Amino acid sequence: MNDHVSYEAATSVSDAVATRRSLRAFLPEPIPRQMLESLLEKAARAPSGTNMQPWKNYVLTGESRQRLCTAVCAAFDDPAVEGASEVEYYPAKWFDPYLSRRRQVGWSLYGLLGIGKGDRERTHAQHRRNFQFFDAPVGLIFTVDRKLATGSWLDYGMYLENLMLLAREQGLHTCPQAAWADYHTVIRRELSLHDDEIVLCGMALGHADPDAIENSLVTERVPLADNTTFLD
Fold first, then answer.
1. Angle 91-68-177 (CA atoms, 0-180°, nearest 5)?
2. Which long-range contacts (CB under 8 A, 24 or more apart) does 87-96 make?
3. Dihedral sign, CA of 134, 139, 145, 148?
4. Are 214 and 129 in contact (CB under 8 A)?
5. CA triple 84-88-94, angle to 5 deg
6. How many of the other CB atoms lie within 10 Å of CB of 45?
7. What is the residue-wise DSSP string for 16-45?
8. Angle, CA of 214, 64 and 121, to the nearest 5°
9. What is the pTM of this model?
């Protein structure tokens, strides 16, 4: 298993899986439209129950990306605006082992950035970078029809993973971002979403900044025995 961040194109599926990271700093180098279309077309080969293909994408570059970032950052900076997702992505009350894992990745990232506990200003600034797609030239917003059921959400996860692995094949990196769903009302207005569309998540996509210290973070995975049972 590759335990370092790779900025080169993945050479196999195993390499793509091993080198995929949720990176948080990107270079401004634009990504050609043809490459984006190819990635999304290939990702759509993901399996889905009865071939429903529940995914819907909004690909933002240039001025459209900047407009959305400006609008959501303004809402994030406004104390009178409280972000709240329509999606129950995280548990209402955290418990172990999930709480410990969540804390560990947070401490690791903020430790690299030199953000101490209780530093609200720098914590706010770092969280705000979500809504700038971490400076990636391509921002994606994914929506799902609210009338669909849990199975379609599982299908969606496989689609998103396809997209992230295919990006690695092209030497690109990504960061899937649940944070965008907290500002679905702003996104709905800016993208003219239909009432039936739930903002599922966002994703930053581009060339990773190799000089950014936060991109050196490599998260741990628990041993196989912790989550797998072999039955003979």
1. 30
2. 87/178, 87/181, 87/198, 87/199, 87/200, 87/201, 89/178, 89/181, 90/178
3. negative
4. no
5. 100
6. 10
7. HHHH--B---B------HHHHHHHHHHHTT
8. 40
9. 0.95
What pLDDT does residue 4 have?
Answer: 64
Name residue 164's amino acid. Answer: M
Q: What are the backbone angles phi and psi of residue 22, rounded to the nearest 5°?
A: -90, 95
Q: Which residue has the tokens 């969606």?
A: 156
Pair of tokens at residue 157: 């996860």
- Mean pLDDT by groups of 10 residues along the chain of 232 residues: 73 96 97 98 98 98 98 96 91 96 95 94 96 98 97 98 98 98 97 97 97 95 96 96
The length of the chain, given as a count of residues: 232
Q: Residue 54: is the preceding peptide bond cis (ω within 30°)?
A: no
